[in-house]
Amino acid sequence: MLSLIVHDASVLWRNTHGAAAMTLEALKGTPDAFDARLQDARPHPGQVRSAAIMRELLEGSEIRESHRMDDPRVQDAYSVRCTPQVMGPVHDTIEYAASAARIELNAATDNPLVFDGDLVSGGNFHGQPIAMALDYLTIALTVLAGMAERRIERLVNPDLSPGLPAFLARNPGLESGFMMVQIAAASLVGECRALSTPASVQSVPTDANQEDVVPMSMAAAFKTRRVYENASRVVACELMCAAQGLEYHRPLRSAPAVEKLLATVREQVEPLTEDRPLSADIERLTVLVKGETFI
User: Fold this and answer.
1) What is the pLDDT of residue 21?
2) Where are the domains of the chain?
């Protein structure tokens, strides 16, 4: 279970950067915060990698050049500017969980074990290392989902999104646009946060108190999988909103890599020209963000 969810989380982590880059462009943000020199001054591995991905995705943007001069804003909000500083620890957590999975897959966990004819009873079967890795991963995925939801809020809120209409609607006031998409994302994040209470500290003794410290690792695994599914849908919601936001800036083009991502999104979801049910669109994009070929 741990090795499978680690793989899926790694894919989602990278695809989240695609959504973040699209949102930054739609919000007319700046990539300056991803300067390599900033990351080298605080060289956590995940932060360095996250910033490099963002620089690559945002290279060559016409939208960026359109507001390089005389932009009254000093800095972008944390949910945009601090992408490496937040997604970096998520990456490092995934790497920690991957390390735990590699050790466990190559470990002897039977009891007893036989060494050169000696029968030795012990506790290698105990699932605490896996339970704690899963709990840590659950928290990381919840952080990822929360970051994406905050960017959605900036896209749909006219007080926070320069040049974009309220809720990205074609006819604000008459249509809801992506209002319910943000509400759905907020609900999913709320559930993720409720599920982020660690299972690995919830020991309930069994077997006449012989098994008096148990790891609850399966409970941890079920929670991690649920949070991963929720987080994938939140990123799908962000992609849908960011794609709509980008099209309000035409004829300006975003970075070539972002334009490619936009085209991939548009293969699955049409622009919103009037209110329609969006649940099927979210599900199609969820499949996309779970895939390894999105970025």
Assistant:
1) 98
2) 2-108+118-290
Q: Is 2-108+118-290 a domain of CATH 1.20.200.10?
A: yes
- Cis peptide leading into 112, omega within 30 of 0? yes
Q: Per residue in 237-270, pLDDT tens? A: 999 999 999 999 999 999 999 999 999 999 999 9
Rounded to the nearest 10°, the torsion over CA 37, 295, 94, 217 is 160
- The rounded distance, in Å, linking the Cα atoms of 160 and 154 is 5
Kindly write down the DSSP assignment for every residue of 166-220, as one continuous string. GGG-SSBTTB-TTHHHHHHHHHHHHHHHHHTS-STT----BTTTTB-S---HHHH
Torsion sign over Cα 126, 130, 133, 136: negative
Give the model's pLDDT for residue 293.
86
Q: Determine the Cα–Cα distance for residues 251 and 151; give it in Å rounded to an integer.
A: 23
Residues in the chain with pLDDT values less than 70? none
**Which of 260, 280, 258, 253 is closest to 269 using CA atoms?**
280
Percent of the chain clearing pLDDT 70 (strictly above): 100
- Cβ distance 154 to 258 under 8 Å? no
Report the alpha-carbon angle 8-76-92, nearest 5: 30
* Rounded Cα–Cα distance for residues 210 and 217 (Å): 18
